Every structure is written in structure tokens, then in C-alpha cells.
Amino acid sequence: MNSHRHKNVPSSSHDEDYVDRAGNPKSLFWKLDFLMRHLPSWMVPRFERARLRLTNLDNGSTIDGESTTGDVARGDRRTAIALDEFAAFETDAGYRAMASTRDATRSRIFNSTPCGTGNAFADVARSPGIRQLRLHWSDHPVKAEGLHYVDGHPRSPWYDRECQRCLSPTEIAQELDISFSGSQSLFFDPARLQEIRGKCVQPDGRGELEHGPGGCDPTWVPSRNGKWLLWCGLSADGSPPPSTYSVGADVASGTGSSNSCLSVLDLRTGKKVAEWAASDVRPDVMAGIAVAACRWFSDDSGVPATLIHEAAGPGRIMGDVAIETGFRNFWMRPLEGMAVRKYSQRIGWFPTRDGKVALWGHYRRLLFEGAIWNPSIDAVNECAEMIYTGGGVEHVRSIASQDASGARANHGDRATADALAAMALSAGTSPPGRSDREQAPQGTLAARRSVAVAAAGEIAW
Fold first, then answer.
1. Distance (Å, whole) CA 321 – CA 340
2. 153-172 pLDDT, tens per residue?
3. Band (177; pLDDT cuts 50, 70, 90)
4. For the segment 138-153, what is each residue's pLDDT rounded down to a tens digit?
5. If both were cysteines, with which of 4, 116, 193, 305 could 297 make a disulfide (CB 3.0 to 4.6 Å apart)?
6. Can you list the domains of the chain with their CATH numbers?
7. 3-class secondary structure for 62-131?
């Protein structure tokens, strides 16, 4: 039996009326009914029409329709499945539909206008293994009348009129230009990011940073599958060159849903020299890894790198455990509205709406001005998917494609760690923390007081 399923996906509703509703030209089955009415009689088979179904009585084939769910066609068997306006799927439902339809048919048709880069349709459009059929307005004989090019971009009188009817450049990119990157409010300029991508290079080394309890005695162990990537040479004893460093830490729950990341920035040169990413490391375990990195990347006097972490959610857990190890070189928030810059007694960065705008605005300025060199292609690519939202600046993807680190999701974690590390280059950089040698001996009253005060959200020197 030749069996087909046609699937309609409205952008803001799961209503079946968008699939089949009598008299509604928006519905897909209305279009099928229109074709059946206007075909020559010798081309029309005997058929039976019911809601959400058209059956060819001569050969038994059917066209079925249903409303959107992420589990569409699971357990089904079809000759072909068409997913209409696929970019309008909710992000999670889009990836679930990709999985549920894969074994149901050997032929899937994905149809849509772009709607940003953070969805399953964008991944399909970028996949080299999927045949692409691009239906651009410039291929239409009426719309392309008077076609000409301005800076390599096609234009025509029809296109100019349509642009005037659009409310924003985002709408033009989405509805007219078939532009994935332009169909969302991008925070980073794509052309500038492309220039930065051209300067990205392969890491000089890969491995693990083994350490003792509390991040003590870090030792570099080369490994082809290591989670640490290095963009700096090591000395004969296997240590990085002495410099002033900062370590940005974006902390996840460690359940595999997204990455926890560390980024190491050489503050003297502005070069990112190391990156670590893992999806299955708990925040308390990550504390030892972060502290070990800070102690390994130290200056000429042995003062460890400054740790800058997100202090909310899982990051609070990591920060508390890092304090318990005796580590004290944390970044502290500057107090706002002060004529003379002073610093709060709270460690870490807090992801408020204004805080996100300030964080990403500062990082973008440093990156585009060349004050920072980021050689990591993965981290730079994540910047391309940062967008303006009602919550400030966010990464567009809530569920992403496969990641080499093993994460099921990609929320711009590498880029966030980079932006946090860059906070040490701002005018609001906190005073240098005390080195491990200057801290009160473990077990003393001063040491116990420091741990107690820091656990309460403050830091005592």
C-alpha cells in the first residue's frame, strides 16, 4: 500500500484546524481539495474524503494529517512524511519529531521559512546529507521582474515593496531572504564573527589536569580524549608559562543536559590559552577541577589565577566547595554607583537581566576590538547564537545537536565561560586575592572564620 502522511505545524497552536478545516485556505487539506476540484476528470481517481484523511479508492493509498506533537509518527510506517513549517515547532518538539519520524519512513520532507538557528530545521538545512530545494523569490518570473543586485544582494521592484511592508530587518530576513542568522535578533555581528573564525586555530595540546584533594598539586597528563584543550606551550616540567590569568567557570548540573565549562585567559596577552568542557561532572567535583586550574595557571610569584564563576544555581554549589578547599582568589562584584570603586563582599557573577547585558556587551567589545584573541572555533560559533530576549541576552538553543563533549544540550556554555574570564579585564576587576601562602593555616580560628563567612555569601580576607 502506498501510504503518505502530511503534517502541518502552526507556529503558535497545536490546533488540528490548521491541518484540515473546511473553507480555510490556510489549512493543508483545503489546498488538496482545491487541487482535486480543478484537476481534469481523467486525472482524478475515485476517492473518499474524511476529516484529516484523503483516500484513493483505486489503489488504497492515503494522505493523513494530524496536529503537532514531538512524538509524531512514533511506531508508524509511512511511505513519506512531510513536516510543514518545521521551524515553527517548539524547539524540544522539533528534535523529538526528528527522532520519532526517522524509523517511520525512508522519506521525510522538511518545509519551512527560517526562524533563527536554534531549532531542528536549522540543523536540517545545514546537514550535507539532506538534499536541499531552495525556493527563493528571485526564481519567480513575476517577483523577479527588474531583478538587479546591490552589493551582491538580489533586489527587484517587488522585493523593495515587500521590504516596505515588513516591520523589521528580522522579518525581511525570515520571510524574503531565507536567512537563518538574520531571522533572529543576533547579539554578535555575523560578519565580525566570521573574521574572528578565520583566526581560530587547532589546540597545541589535549589532556587531563590530574590533581589531589581540593585541587592541590595539579599535573598535566596528555591524552587524545582529554577534556582540556591548550593553546599555549608548556615548559620542560609540564607547566604553563607564568603570567596573570583568570579562569571563567560556567557551571551546569552535571546530569548530561548541558556542559560545564572552564576558560583560561592570559590577562597580559589577552589570549585564551585553555578550555575545558564536560557534561557529566557534578558542581562539587568541578570545584576541584576549577581550583586545580587556577593553581596550575599561576603568575611569577605563584599566585593562582582569579576564579570568576556564576554564583547562582549549580555555580553556588561549586563556589561553596571551592571555598572549603581553602582557595581564596575569587573575583568579587564591584559596587555600583560609587564615585570611588569599591567591591562587594560577595564572590562570583550573578545572572540578572542587566548583568547579562553588561557581561556580553563587555565581552563583545573586547573581542571585536582585538583585546581578546579566542582561538577556539567551538566557542566562537556559540557566540553566533547569542540573541537579545526579554531576559537580556541568551543563547538561542535549548536543545542542540550532538556535541563532542557528550552534552545533550548546548546553551553557549563555552562562550559564557569566555565572557566570565574576560570580566577580569574590565575596570571592575577586583583586587588580587591572597595567594595560598598568605592564607591562614588550616584548622586555625582565622581559617574556620573565613570558611564560615564565605559560606554565608561573603569573603573574608
1. 32
2. 899 999 999 999 987 777 78
3. confident
4. 999 999 999 999 888 8
5. 305
6. 3-133 (3.40.50.300), 137-184 (no CATH), 205-455 (3.30.420.240)
7. EEECCCCCCCCCCCCCCCEEEEECHHHCCHHHHHHHHHHHHCCCCCEEEECCCCCCCCHHHHHHHCCCCC
